[in-house]
Amino acid sequence: MLKSILTLFTFLCLFPALAVAEKKSERPNIVLIMADDLGYGDLSCYGSQNCQTPHLDKLAQRGMKFTDFHSSGAVCSPTRAGLLTGRYQQRAGIDGVVYADPKKNRHHGLQKTEVTLGQCLLDAGYRTGMFGKWHLGYQRQYNPTFRGFQQFVGYVSGNVDYFAHLDQTGVFDWWHGPELNREEQGYSTHLITDHAVKFIREQHEQPFLVYIAHEAVHYPYQGPHDKPMRKEGGGEIKAAKRQDIANAYREMNTEMDQGIGKVVSVLEELNLTDNTFIFFLSDNGANNKGSNGALRGFKGSVWEGGHRVPAIACWPGQIPSGTVCDQTVISIDVMPTILELARARVPAGHQLDGVSLAGLLTEKKQLQPRNVFWDYNGRSAVRQGPWKLVLNQERKTPVALFNLKSDLSESQNLAEEQSQRVTKMQAAFKAWKKDVTQSATPQPDK
């Protein structure tokens, strides 16, 4: 009798801990993958005839493919700032590219007052790693290891030579944590994949966030069998420059896809598939070397081709397989989504601009109507339902209105016949612009 009582007492004492362990185990691992300059038409599951991407196609088949997903920026740094803060990049203080050139804004970066996805998940008990392209500050204090990522291997600039690891100014740019590492050699896409896989193997017994920011398919256009193109100190090795950019682009895309396949394979090997949420996206649309499908415009513009990008979410057993989502989603929604899934949170009073997609992903819930904004280099756009207002993208037509439901290619300007709608959307943009400008995180003077 006494033994039974002691057994019951022990169980009751342990029950809270067991409940916590059970609850903790339900939190998914997070694999966040971002491609660089990958266009809406650059994956075979989005209709590409030039690039075959079987591993990403399989993720789409096993999960959800988005047809109306958008990067918050039309170029690299802004979208990355928005992705990792859950805020419009204008509010986060990085509304344009952080350039390697010291004559421009090389001293800018993601300030300590900004709260990152890595910090939030680290506080929630996750292990955090980031591999690949940072592009949110060159100076040491902006290194990812000081922004919530316990491990970092990659580069901090906008792009590096895939072999020599030199940025556009000829500065060596390959880091292990907050220190340069000149010893590691190899093709950047392969290195990013290898380090991500290693991190997953090492951290698989506890919840983890791995942010895989691929260099592909950004220039320089180098396949895995090419040679270095850049020289330390600046300049190009002319003899090594590839002329067949289309083939290089295809090879770069293929290597990234195969690397993603390796990440999925290690998850399967470690029996983590069912408890891992994978999200894939691009930081902006393709330039004229890639494909944006039927969309108008390219990277750097606020036409659809500049910011409507491929995106895939996969979480077996939670996200219905083979789902196609046509709701309007933007990359600043990714952080709130992950925070909800991971049961993590931002500090009290901290403002996020994105919304959680958890209900949309797992229950196909409709998002609440909202305005979505883009603003880059004097060109702007507003989205309200199917309507899109484009401002100052062209000198001849500084105000243009399109109904994307019937005119995805943005070819029929309806601004004159929908003047009241234009006025309403202009007012919404003006109010948003004032809000994010007034609350923007300041950058330091030189």
Automatic annotation (TrEMBL):
InterPro entries cross-referenced by the UniProt entry: Alkaline_phosphatase_core_sf (IPR017850), Sulfatase (IPR050738), Sulfatase_CS (IPR024607), Sulfatase_N (IPR000917)
Keyword Metal-binding listed: yes
Alphabetical keyword list: Calcium, Hydrolase, Metal-binding, Signal
SUPFAM superfamilies: Alkaline phosphatase-like
Signal peptide extent: 1-19
PANTHER family to which the protein is assigned, alphabetical: ARYLSULFATASE FAMILY MEMBER, ENDO-4-O-SULFATASE
Protein name: Arylsulfatase
Organism the protein comes from: Gimesia panareensis
Protein's gene: atsA_28
